[in-house]
Amino acid sequence: MATSLEFLTEALRRLPGVGPKSAQRMAYHLLQHDREGAAMLSRALFQAVEAVHHCALCNTFTEDEICGTCRDEDRDKRMLCVVETPADQMMIEQTLTYKGLYFVLMGRLSPLDGIGPKDIHLEKLVERANDGVVGEVVLATNFTNEGEATAHYISELLKARGLKVSRLARGVPVGGELEYVDAGTIARAMLDRRTT
Amino acid sequence: MATSLEFLTEALRRLPGVGPKSAQRMAYHLLQHDREGAAMLSRALFQAVEAVHHCALCNTFTEDEICGTCRDEDRDKRMLCVVETPADQMMIEQTLTYKGLYFVLMGRLSPLDGIGPKDIHLEKLVERANDGVVGEVVLATNFTNEGEATAHYISELLKARGLKVSRLARGVPVGGELEYVDAGTIARAMLDRRTT
Predict the structure, then answer these.
(1) Residue A65's Cα: distance from chain center in Å?
(2) Hey, is the C-beta of A143 within 8 angstroms of any chain B C-beta?
(3) pTM, whole model, 2 decimals?
(4) Is the ipTM of this complex over 0.95?
């Protein structure tokens, strides 16, 4: 087999979720059917590694010093929403219900994977939240065990510094039928019930 | 979001089996945790696109005009084994039971996907098999519907030119328990039974 091909297969295995068989299939596919795509991916990777950095304020990926969202003068600077990933931020943006700023952790606390407070930039978050303008921090980490633990940890950290901290509401999803919602969610929705 | 990031996500979708969500996850992972891997993959893709071509004889991927297997003087030039992919060739090599040469189709006939005889280089195969030295062509395409159809098509093509054509035996896998083997395989094994 060709050396360049082995090198390519090995490099493709660096992608998350790609094992030896998939890597080989990808390499064959690119060389056999999509050399243009391979060249394009090569350029895209090179360009992204060169150009993409973290926003000095919110920590998301950007090609500038400060990202577009943080530079947006129309946003409410008193609100700071903490999310795990840029994808989560995008989901919240799509709801059109939030007009404040963001802080992107780029991860979550996960002691088992060796991901501690430093890896999710909590020092940077504390500094950002204590700029004197931010009045409320909305924790929008995932509602997984790790996301909840991360939210709890950040909450303690920021409340100790006198900041108001809130968490996205948990409950029955919109359109959800009780019959098909898990008991934990219903229990939480019962506890958090609102008077109408 | 950054333009380089969007470009990278789009380029990652060119990989087989990678949808929008996976592409985004891969892009985030590379930029956040493995920029070295991203740079390596970029180089590997560039290098492979530049260097890897098809062997003039057996059609497999190689960086030379003729691949190492075809150049190997110790191989039996009277035998030609037809496989779908280089991975299949490697599996056969690992058995150490075959010392002839190969022809790699780089695919299989699949009318539904628009893959016809030209796409799997059957003209090149016919020319190759009619070099006056090859005496037997062993069809080792997969035992899927498409692989079987491909084998049948090639068989007719080569037999019409007076070549001896054989097919890998079908039957119960080594170590297979009849109870767990499908009826079609057992039926085939019964038809192809051998006197001992």
Answers:
(1) 19
(2) no
(3) 0.75
(4) no
